[in-house]
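Study both lines:
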Amino acid sequence: MKKTSQKAPHRPKLPAAYLALLEDFPLRPIRNGSECDRATRIVHRLALREGALDEGEEAYLEVLEGLVERYESEHFPMEDVSPTRVLRMLVEQAGMSVTELGNLLGSKGAASELLSGRRKEPSKAQIARLCERFKVDASLFLLPAKARSTAA
């Protein structure tokens, strides 16, 4: 019987910076709060160097961000935020008055009703204007489906 030698597939050499990051914090599921804190500090440190990271550091950062997000979403779920609260926050941060919001929406009355919570959701046309003005996703101004059915 003739023995044939097979070459192992060529694996690219991993960058030294990537290997150093793996030694600092291995890429594996985050199991507790202190691991999450450590991972978050590394994410922040790397994010500050965004644009100056090598390919290995970019890949490591992307995976570590996903692990942190997964841990946080499992252990600290976010409550649904109402469109009213979102709108109030955006208007406050922009330093807008009710009149200015009314001009944007096409109705001062609609602005007042939305900010007070008497009206739960802006119209589609108003959502489009709000998204354009504040550069946010339209989903922020929509009630969750379960809330919509109870509000009707």
About this structure: The chain has eight helices and no strands. The two ends are 79 Å apart (CA to CA). The mean pLDDT is 86. Residues 83-142 form a domain with the 434 Repressor (Amino-terminal Domain) fold (CATH 1.10.260.40).
